[in-house]
Amino acid sequence: MLKPPLLPQVADGDDTGLSNDHLKPIRSQDRLCTKWDFVSLWVGLVTNISAFYIAGSLVELGMSWYQGIFIIVFANTIILFPLTLTAHAGTRYGIPFPVLARSAFGIRGAHVPTIIRAVVACGWFSIDTWIGAEAISILLPSSLQQSPLNNSIPWLGTSVLNLICFLLFWLFQLVLLRKGMEGIKDLEKYSAPVLIFLTFSLLIWAYLKAGGFGEMLSSPPRLSYSEFWTLFFPSLAANMSLWSTISLNIPDFTRYAKTQSDQILGQIGLPILVGVFAFVGLAVASSTQVIFGHVISNPILILREIEAGWFTTIFAICAISLTIVTTNLAANLVASANALVNLCPSVFDFWRGALLTAVIGIICQPWRIFDSTDIFVHTWLVGYSALLGPIGGIIVVDYCILRRMVLDVSSLYSASSSGPYHYYRGYNLTAMAALVLGILPVVPGFLHNVGAVNRAPQLFIFLYNTSWFVTFFTAGISYWVLSGLTATQRSQAMEPLLLQST
User: What is the pLDDT of residue 186?
Assistant: First the structure.
């Protein structure tokens, strides 16, 4: 039976460039998060506008509410397995995702997966901030909304007024982030009841306006059998993509967990939480067909259509803003900031990494991504899952299968050429090769999706539509097989660690 390891002290001010106060293992006495903290975290993450929008878009595409629920719950049940396996390392060793990645990719090679994760986080930060800006714009006086400032500028892709709202919401989040991880934990804890109240308030409004669940959920699916299965796999991949991000950097949070049972029990209800919130999103989107005569999947647009008093509107905007902030800070800024700290610990601390993430978020121009459901779902969500899937597959195979959940923590912070994670000049070429092999099968389908090629065989389109599955298993299996070439050396290096842990 494996015993909790004694965490070694990582030297202060070492010259390896591999450690600072944000990357060092969290000491046992500093791990204060219980299962309820993780439940609060996931309530804050799940109740977000993007998840609501994705759920509603399934109705917009022609699915019934029960078809949508099945896809969403199934997707999150699948993603829960790699998520909890990766989370185990954070709790057992107190290390963040960038340090865990060193085990599989090498002490220098870990920059590759962490920067990929950071780029996706920057994109998500910008998209969620843009949604917050849309919510703010509702409160603006009609005179300002009808002014020339609200006219779209072709080269910019949006209006000056919308850009100002975007920058204001952007700045608001940075002010909240100044408190660091402790502030994020408190925000998640105290915002959870508000988010639950908002979610069910919207459901009650839809119920009353549509005349009950019978009317809300009576619309039959508008898709034929073949059409449903054509949309099933990209819809499944899109919903898995939403949390494939957190499934990688979940150690950034579980390193603060008191015990493994706390992090597991706090996260195992993810499919249930997602299913409940998805039901609200699907039910509300279905009700808009009855209430307004057409399906509206974007909750911001629904809010614009609702004839409510100022108090109700302001409360709803504040609550929506809260859902965006809790998701954006926890899911996006934390991951990107830690990746930048790992890239250059002597230059970046948590705050500087978060600030650079926010600046890159402006450059991403999220209004172009979120402008189209097709671009958002099939290009953005499915596209980035092709990059995150192979990283997850490699890390799970390395930690759970090859290393049997036993790590030499001191060596993860050492640049010694004799260390087990040094590989070739700090890079594990086996992991790099597996990463490339995992991504290659979906490249033709991606090029076809973005219009770079006019035609692609149906097989490649299918592979792209199932990007996360294809890349996760292709890269994981490739890494497992290729690592067999160095199995003897790995076993010799691990033998003392295994004896110490038993």
Answer: 64
- Token digits for 337? 């900031």
Kind plus residue range of the DSSP H or E element containing 153: strand 152-153
Which parts of 385-441 are beta strand (E)?
A: none
Give the Cα separation of 68 and 74 in Å (integer). Answer: 10
CA-CA distance, 167 to 129, in Å (whole number)?
9
Find the Cα–Cα–Cα–Cα dihedral 247, 476, 238, 343, rounded to 10°: 50
- Please say whether the beta carbons of 339 and 115 come within 8 A: yes
Q: Would you call 29 exposed, middle or buried from its count of C-beta atoms within 10 A (0-12, 13-18, 19+)? A: exposed
How far is Cα 65 from Cα 87, in angstroms, rounded to an integer?
A: 32
Q: Answer whether residue 52 shows pLDDT above 80.
A: no
Q: Which carries the bigger pLDDT value, residue 3 or residue 424?
A: 424
Other CB atoms closer than 10 Å to residue 233's CB: what's the count? Answer: 18
Report which secondary-structure segment, H or E, holds 159.
strand 158-159
- Asked if residue 11 has pLDDT above 50, the reply is no
CA 387, CA 50: separation in Å to the nearest integer?
Answer: 20
Which residue has tokens 């629920």? 69
Tell me: the pLDDT tens digits for 228-264? 888 888 888 888 888 888 899 899 899 999 999 999 9
Out of 32-36, 292-296, 384-388, 484-488, least confident range: 484-488
Distance CA 79, CA 140 (A): 40
If we measure between CA atoms, which residue out of 378, 447, 444, 400 comes closest to residue 238?
378
Residue 70: closest CA among 206, 225, 232: 232
- HEC-encoded secondary structure of 440-466: HHHHHHHHHHCCCCCCCCHHHHHHHHC
Percent of the chain with pLDDT over 70: 88
**Contacts of the segment 375-381: beta carbons below 8 A, 24+ positions apart:** 376/53, 376/127, 377/54, 377/57, 377/234, 377/235, 377/238, 378/234, 378/238, 378/449, 379/449, 379/450, 380/123, 380/127, 381/54, 381/237, 381/238, 381/241, 381/242
> What are the structure tokens assigned to 186, written together?
């408190």
Residues 26/255, Cβ–Cβ less than 8 Å: yes
